[in-house]
Amino acid sequence: MKQFGTETYVIIGHLRNFSIRVKLFHQQTKAEEQHLEEEYVFHWQEKVFSPREKAFYRDQKNCKTETQLLYNKEIKNTRFCQIFVHGNGSISYPGKRRSKIQMKPGDLTNHLPPDELLLESAPEYLRHFSHLPTIITQDMYIMADLSDCIPGDAAELSSPYVGNEEILCKITISSDGLLHCKPDFTHESDKYKIESKQKGSYYYTLENISIQMSEMDKQKIRNIDKEISLRKSSQLCAIVGKQFEMPTEQSFRLFIVGEILGATNFENSGLYVQYFLELPQNWKAYDHKLLCGSSQIASVMNHGNKEISTFSHPIEFDLTYKPEINIDLTRGSTSVWPTLYFEILSLDFWTRSRTEGYGFIELPHIAGTHSVSVSCWRPVGDSVVEDLRRFFTGGTCQLEDPTFSKIPGSFESNNLVKYGFRTRSTGKLFLRLNCAIQSW
């Protein structure tokens, strides 16, 4: 069964309407034609005993509980069946057993409309990691005993009987109203193939013959589900209250809380950082005072053979994006993301100020915690005089427009040429950003 995917369907109506017809065909040799071995119609969680269960429950000594004693009486009145069902609570629940199912030559064609298919539910590890609600499931395994020593009458079975049990199909019903079938139902002449070491090849079909509901009944169920959803929504609103701020319609809200951690590999100590956030078209800030700021002078800490200037300076941005109907395309692409620019400076004991580097980053596009390192550079002069002035008196080359480290805000041409602009690589700036996204 591992070779086939799981198809998912929406359950409309009661589970008592669910029915699946299983036909098992046998072919001993390739020259021999397939003949119908057995056919059975199963309903949801219908108890159909396997030959091994019949051999076990037939002996009253093996029956300890009231349920097992009831099985002992039922077996006497049940007909022999090579196809059977294991469900929740069975004595031999197959769990994660693998079956040797193959597909009959010729591709299976999916004749279902695409709007009835849904994606698989989230994996268990992702469900716990993302704090998603737990989904309760019930499983039903349709199996077959392919042994060549099955007697014609159930009364001839004796315990212990092992048999050769193989899984034909697994059906799972989840509490979120979905049915998962692995492998999928067959259509027209499609068949699945399973090999038996003792009796050659078997082919089988899985046909969905569930009772179809009328459109009137379906509409009634939709109305009931809608009413239940509205009640749950009103209950949640009553619990949360009106203090929870909702985003405006057709808008995107980005909330970032982070800190400037530190810097390393810069020429001088006594570092501090000046920063500002540039907002593209259609982006707005709830508080413009938070868009720019300056850190304190860093303290230097030794980590091994490396000196790290530590800031631990908090930053916070609360932004919203709402596209307008009349977008000015001449100002660039509407998908431009907010950019955070940095200027790293140093101040020594003699109050000599120097520019140590420039850098920038785009704000994270996805929610979560992000550790970011910014590689910085600074402009240099054309002569040795600039270096001497930087060393003795301070005061170095600076950018008139800090956005020149990326694309200047005043740039309007098609081509940006920075040829001949002399720079020097400096150190790195480290940040940690926690990003939350809210969208309508």
UniProtKB/TrEMBL annotation:
Gene Ontology BP terms: cilium assembly
Keyword annotations: Cell projection, Cilium biogenesis/degradation, Cytoplasm, Cytoskeleton
GO CC term, one of those recorded: MKS complex
Subcellular compartments: Cytoplasm, Cytoskeleton, Cilium basal body
Chief localization: cytoplasm
A Pfam cross-reference name: B9-C2
Name of the protein in question: Meckel syndrome type 1 protein
Taxon lineage: Eukaryota, Metazoa, Spiralia, Lophotrochozoa, Platyhelminthes
